[in-house]
Design goal:
single chain; 114 residues; 0% strand
Length: 114
């Protein structure tokens, strides 16, 4: 089944899940950058080092996350990947979405739980 063949309600639910995964992943990446700001505020690093860290964040993790979630990747793939990586928990997946995730026979809803 192609992504454009998914029922509208399922697509909407998956877009919401992908949005949650995007926010969660970006929040994790920003936590590290926040640590750099704390180091700068306590004079552990200087402004130049902080600026370099911001630049590295923008060109590294931020760009990777943006490209993943702003791409035209299949919503089912993004949801499955977020489950696999622990970015989404199985409890967040509505029951009506599970049949559309097309999980392989050796991966089930129960085996994805953490």
């Amino acid at each position: 089944m192609q992504q454009n063949e998914l029922p509208k309600a399922i697509k909407r639910a998956m877009r919401s899940l992908v949005g949650i995964a995007h926010e969660t992943e970006l929040k994790r990446a920003l936590e590290e950058l926040y640590g750099n700001f704390q180091e700068w505020k306590s004079d552990e690093i200087d402004s130049i080092e902080l600026s370099d860290q911001i630049h590295n964040f923008h060109n590294g993790p931020n760009r990777d996350i943006y490209l993943r979630y702003a791409s035209k990747l299949d919503l089912r793939f993004l949801v499955r990947q977020a489950l696999k990586e622990g970015t989404l928990q199985t409890a967040a997946i509505p029951k009506e979405v599970w049949p559309y995730l097309e999980l392989s026979s050796h991966v089930s809803e129960n085996s994805l739980e953490r």
